[in-house]
Amino acid sequence: MTLQNFMNEAISPWMREEGPDSDIVLSSRIRLARNFANVSYPIIADKDKLEEIRDFFRDNYENQSFEEYKDFAFVAISDLSPVEKRVLVEKHLISPHLAENAEIAAALISENEQVSLMVNEEDHIRIQLYLPGFQLENALQKAFTFDDFLEEKVNYAFDETRGYLTSCPTNVGTGMRASVMMHLPALAMTKQINRMIPAINQLGLVVRGIYGEGSEAIGSIFQISNQITLGKTEEDIVEDLQSVVKQLIDHERKARSRIMEQSRTSLEDRIFRSYGVLEYSRVIESKEAAVCLSNVRLGIDLGFIENVSRNILNELMILTQPGFLQQYAKRTLTANERDILRASLIRERLQLEK
Amino acid sequence: MECQECHERPATLHFTQYVNGQKSEVHVCEVCAKEKGYMNYPEEGYSLHNLLSGLMNFDTSTIKGPQQNTFQQVQELQCPKCEMTFSEFKQVGKFGCAVCYDTFSSRLDPIFRRVHAGNTKHQGKIPKRQGGDLHNKKLMEDYKSKLKRLIEDEAFEEAAEVRDKIKALENNTQDPEEGDPS
Description:
heterodimer; A: alpha+beta; eight-stranded antiparallel beta sheet; two-stranded antiparallel sheet; B: elongated; ATP-guanido_PTrfase_AS (chain A); protein arginine kinase activity (chain A); ATP-guanido_PTrfase_cat (chain A); ATP-binding (chain A)
């Protein structure tokens, strides 16, 4: 498996399958933070120690397979161009923080891009496992299995009382961050989400807008994750998160049908205007594209738009990010050039669907 | 002047913004200012990491009187492995290594309690290989609390089953139902 494969396609292979409730939940993710017992953490450790860790992962796991995760690609961050780093971040295969730790950081990515293992991020090891749609429990079991596989060769920093010892006190214990990405256009349109977020926060969960700054969510995509990692089992944390996600799905569906009943025509108008913008614009900013894509996806979910696949939001959301556009153009682009290329890529992609 | 965001309400707030050295004027109403994030409310604007170092500074040494403080400075906790001191830890908000957890152990409970909703003790996964005896120890704790609950509920038949499991575990023989098939 080579880096090039990850660069060519915006949409990861695992995203092509539809998961449960995938009209609203785009993906489920489990992240586990782990460290070597005998090496200081990346913020303070000597460079040669961290290089040993990086090399350990290359020597032991490069091109190896484990269960459905085949042919791990070993990617040293120091070998990547700025655009390549950006693409991996935009695909959520690595974190922005990992991309900054260029000298000693690396990633192991499975062929289906379902598992990515970040080496020398804030912790020595960050395991990320993705599943399409709403299947957190399944993702947790898979992440545990992968964690056990790594533990065959790695002595983890673990303590009976404190659990998995992480660099940041906010991750100690389970070291787990479970999250889902949700498309909540109706709750955002009616501003109901603004009232729900504080209540969700009180339950020890965090709601964040994706592709937006602060609490604003451009394109109505939200990430919901757990904040607490100590004092509860992973299963309990996942269960709590799941029950909140279920309620959000429920509220979103209700809000959709209420809008359909009360202002169907104006909703339809809004959806088709967005569709028109995507189909015909020659210059489009990322924010406008995100808003239009969200509306079109809602249009597909509600049956207004036919013959366009639902995956289009996932795919174009990533494909139209600055890193990907420049990867596609094979050169650095100014903001205006990006807006032009974005518009033309979206037009092409929608043509393909017809 | 009307609000430049909603074009409905009058603009009551006027800002000068500098983004990457570029100056721009913003005229908005209060509703849009809140919504678009022009106004920073302290309870919303902080990330957890910002808050964390604040939380940790609110720790014992600052609460005690100034005289005691000077003594504490002298004998500050320092990790024998990575050489991180407790005040460095508070400043950075990150541990330097696994040994820091032992070194700073006496000071950590209040921090963990604040960050993890009152919790200080791990309840979750135990490493499969390294865990060794811990797995049985945890299983025993689970059984015992289950037994207690069953007795309280007067479910004696089920309680007897759990008691047998505890006995089996004590004798270190594999449980017929939950043990390894091997």
